[in-house]
Design brief:
By secondary structure, the chain is an all-alpha fold. It is built from nine helices and no strands. It is extended and about 95 Å long.
């Protein structure tokens, strides 16, 4: 045998003059057992959960799902970057839900003949993610515009925290729509409609509480909804066009 440290030839069990021995090797680098790995993972998860910022994000998400009007009101004065985390989580929820739902519908319509591969699935996810991000910024900017019309100055961060909190219930419902559509596709469509109704109701509540304008709250909301829907539809059409062209090219190559 040879010394792993210096390469000197040794007899079996002979310690090397460089100070290396098999006993030292075994004691110096013991392999962790399964319990130690599990305990380490639990401690890491607990440390993340107990982080004040992570706890605040989780509390905001659960609060928006349980009592959205109260949570929106609580977040309307925030000027921190919580909205960035909320917007990212919402974009992932919405994109994943829509991608799963689209994959299920395509498979069902084609009787299982056409299924989105991993590449096209992530293209749907990417298109929906981009659309969700654009719509979030559209909502924030239009909300700031109407607050300005109502002679109330609102900073971008405060408006962003308000809107991203209002969107969270719809994002959760959309994710549920995608997952439950795997069981029964019409459930997905019903939940997507419920998500839109939830978003409209919360946005109406925001606009209704904006005072100082001669325009009645209902008509103010109609204008708000129309402008938002128009801009989000334009963004959605662009994202959908990118995906459809890409998927059509992929199907053409696979068939011919």
């Amino acid at each position: 045998m040879f010394c792993p440290k210096c390469g000197k030839e040794l007899t079996e069990g002979e310690p090397c003059s460089c100070g290396y021995s098999q006993d030292n090797q075994q004691s110096a680098s013991p392999l962790p057992d399964g319990k130690a790995i599990v305990d380490g993972a639990k401690n890491a998860a607990a440390a993340i959960k107990n982080n004040p910022f992570v706890s605040e994000v989780l509390a905001t998400i659960t609060g928006a799902a349980a009592d959205p009007e109260k949570q929106v009101k609580d977040n309307s004065e925030r000027t921190d970057i919580l909205w960035v985390i909320m917007a990212a989580v919402e974009a992932v929820f919405v994109s994943l839900g829509l991608a799963i739902y689209v994959n299920k519908i395509i498979s069902q319509v084609s009787s299982g003949y056409i299924r989105l591969g991993a590449g096209n699935f992530f293209k749907v996810f990417g298109a929906a993610f981009l659309w969700s991000v654009i719509c979030t910024f559209v909502l924030i900017l239009i909300y700031m515009l109407f607050m300005t019309i109502c002679k109330k100055q609102v900073g971008f961060s405060a408006a962003a925290n308000t809107l991203t909190t209002a969107v969270m219930p719809s994002a959760i419902i959309t994710l549920a729509a995608g997952i439950l559509s795997l069981i029964y596709a019409p459930i997905g469509m019903l939940l997507i409609l419920a998500a839109l109704i939830s978003l409209v109701a919360l946005c109406y509540g925001l606009v209704r509480n904006v005072g100082g304008t001669k325009i009645p709250a209902f008509w103010l909301f109609v204008i708000f909804a129309a402008v938002t829907a128009a801009l989000c539809t334009i963004a959605g059409n662009l994202c959908l066009k990118m995906f459809v062209e890409s998927m059509a090219n992929a199907l053409t190559r696979s068939l011919f």
